[in-house]
Amino acid sequence: MKEVQDHWFRLAKEEGYRSRAAYKLIDIDDRKRLIRRGDRVLDAGAAPGSWSQVAAQRVGPKGEVVAVDLKQINGGGYPPNVRLIQADLRDLDLDEMGGRPFDAVISDMAPDTTGDPMGDALRSVRLCHDLLDRCVDWLRRGGNLTMKVFEGGEYPELLKRASRMFEEAKGYKPRASRQESVEMFIVCHGYRGGDGRVPTAEDALLPKRKPSKGWGS
């Protein structure tokens, strides 16, 4: 297994990608066709920036990639159509990211792992739910999404919610993912609109409020 992972690491060095994670997006996009030439793409949680490298290649010079992360991303080597923003996604609105809805949202975000698999999986699912909440404002109708999640007990319900929001939503594990890893990528095509949440009887009794800004809170 170590030899397989070293292969992706060496290949990233040879081909100028910032991390082996680039090959996860390459595999996803080659098979699932999420990104098209001329698209406007949001890379959520972009550091160290390898997914933005791939996305920039795929959208071409007439497309745009907006890469956002709490950590600073080294701007060296990116083409002019990549915009880097160091910020908390919770604090940004669409105007601060260019004003137009995105054609695709890609996310390799994950919570800091703690060694508690169940807790890590739950926090990962919460991050994904927060991202789906923001698709209402960020993603155009008909747009596409992929996001990383750690599989666990809450994963099936997350996939069901994504299926309510998109024409198609399926789990996919790229070849560059470690075989023993619990990471999965939910790949979604054709955003229908709405947040996909199922109203409950309690919701009707509660005052309306804005969604929490907390990622995984």
Structural class: alpha/beta
* Total domain count: 1
Intertermini distance: 35 Å
Name the overall outline.
globular
Topology pattern, helix = H, strand = E: HHEHEEEHEHEEH
Number of strands: 7
Mean pLDDT: 87
CATH architecture call = 3-Layer(aba) Sandwich
CATH superfamily: Vaccinia Virus protein VP39
The name of the CATH topology is: Rossmann fold
Strand arrangement in the largest pleated sheet: 3-2-1-4-5-7-6
Protein described:
Helices cover 34% and strands 23% of the residues. It has 217 residues and is α/β, with parallel strands linked by helices. It has one domain (2-167, 175-193): Vaccinia Virus protein VP39 (Rossmann fold, 3-Layer(aba) Sandwich). It has a seven-stranded mixed sheet with strand order 3-2-1-4-5-7-6, sandwiched between helices.
Concise structural overview:
By secondary structure, the protein is α/β, with parallel strands linked by helices.
How would you describe this structure in keywords?
seven-stranded mixed sheet; 7 strands; disordered C terminus
Strands, helices and their partners?
Blueprint: H1 2-15, H2 22-32, E1 40-44, H3 50-59, E2 64-69, E3 82-86, E4 102-107, H4 117-138, E5 139-150, H5 155-165, E6 166-172, E7 183-191, H6 201-205
Parallel strand pairs: 1-2, 1-4, 2-3, 4-5
Antiparallel strand pairs: 5-7, 6-7
